[in-house]
Amino acid sequence: MMQRRTVLAGLAALPLLDAVPAPAAEAAFTGVRRLDPELDRIIAADAQPTVLGKGYRWAEGPVWVASGDYLLFGDPASNVVYRWQRGKAISTFLSPSGHAAPVPPTIREPGLNGLALDGKGGVVGANSGARSIDRIDFATRKRTVLVDRYEGRRFNSPNDVCVAKSGAIYFSDPTYGLAGGDASPLREMDWCGLYRMTPDGTVTLLDRTHRRPNGLALSPDQRTLYLALSDEKQPEVLAYTLDAAGMPTGSRVFRDMRPQHGAGLPGLPDGIKVSASGYVFATGPGGVHVCSADGRLLGIIGTGKPVANCTLAPGRLFMTSFDTLAVIDLHRF
């Protein structure tokens, strides 16, 4: 089975392919598998994914910028963030997006990975290559490093971020961006952590018990933090209960993806997004798992290959699936 990081390890040495528009039909996408009638409130019966661009080494971290009516998404293996806008060719928004050139051979994914809007005219990104959490100003493209250490030690390779209404930033820190992964000599911590940074710069380690912490999202009421575990031994999405201050008080399994993983479907739990009405879109084995707020699996948008992440826009769900950017229409639910 082709898994996300196995793919990356093999592709890291390949040259960057030009990202070009693609036809609407794409054989790799396998349609929408409906498991619960409630899915009809979200996705029309005849809805099918449309491919918008292809040729990326590993498409990631999409975020919809409503103020400009465009999508940003990254290719961390190629150190680029791209911009898609209806009626225009996909263009480069930021290059290098992460680690400055030249990139040393000890870094496997030099670019920005997960992206999230900060509500202040900028985007917060997990800088996999430079091993930091950065802020990029939309107007000037100026980069500010928000944090790159915890208790004096460098992070491993920040992977995903989400920003709370309070301005606090939650982020995950596995080892995917380092050549050699867990065995990288660059590591200064012997764990892969889940962290929270407050607007005053205080960083708190929330959890250090998981091998592969990855995608993050918050519920609409800000009282649940979702965390995807890209772990072949524990392919789950967890839900942390947050108190009024945004700190976790406990956790539970929200979505167990072992059945799909065990069936040999491609991919592992990765990116997550939550709609304003509480529906959870979690990428995982086989595609995007569409779930109710109580964890029921309503259906899977089949991608036919590992899907890294997704993001919501008015009436649409954008998906970054391996080498492809795609979109599927949604109801205005």
Task: Summarize this structure briefly.
The protein is mostly beta strands. It is 4% helix and 42% strand. The protein is globular, with a radius of gyration of 18 Å.
List the helices and strands and how they pair.
Blueprint: H1 4-11, E1 31-34, E2 50-54, E3 60-65, E4 70-75, E5 80-84, E6 91-94, E7 112-117, E8 122-127, E9 132-137, E10 143-147, E11 149-150, E12 153-154, E13 160-163, E14 169-173, E15 193-197, E16 203-207, E17 213-218, E18 224-229, E19 236-242, E20 248-256, H2 258-262, E21 272-274, E22 280-284, E23 287-291, E24 297-302, E25 309-313, E26 316-321, E27 324-329
Antiparallel strand pairs: 1-24, 2-27, 3-4, 4-5, 5-6, 7-8, 8-9, 9-10, 11-12, 13-14, 14-15, 15-16, 17-18, 18-19, 19-20, 21-22, 22-23, 23-24, 25-26, 26-27
Q: Strand-and-helix sequence, N→C?
A: HEEEEEEEEEEEEEEEEEEEEHEEEEEEE
Decide which structural class fits the backbone: mainly beta
The number of helical runs is 2
Overall pLDDT score:
92
Trace the largest sheet across and list its strands.
Answer: 1-24-23-22-21
Low-confidence stretches: 4-27
Write down the CATH topology. Answer: Neuraminidase
CATH class: Mainly Beta
Could you give a short account of the major beta sheet? 5 strands, antiparallel
Rg computed from alpha carbons, rounded to a whole number of angstroms: 18 Å
CATH superfamily annotation: TolB, C-terminal domain
Q: Note the gap between the termini.
A: 35 Å
Number of domains: 1
Strand content: 35-45%
Task: Please give the CATH architecture.
Answer: 6 Propeller
Q: Bin the helical content.
A: under 10%
What is the total tally of β strands?
Answer: 27
Q: What overall geometry do the principal axes of the alpha carbons give?
A: globular
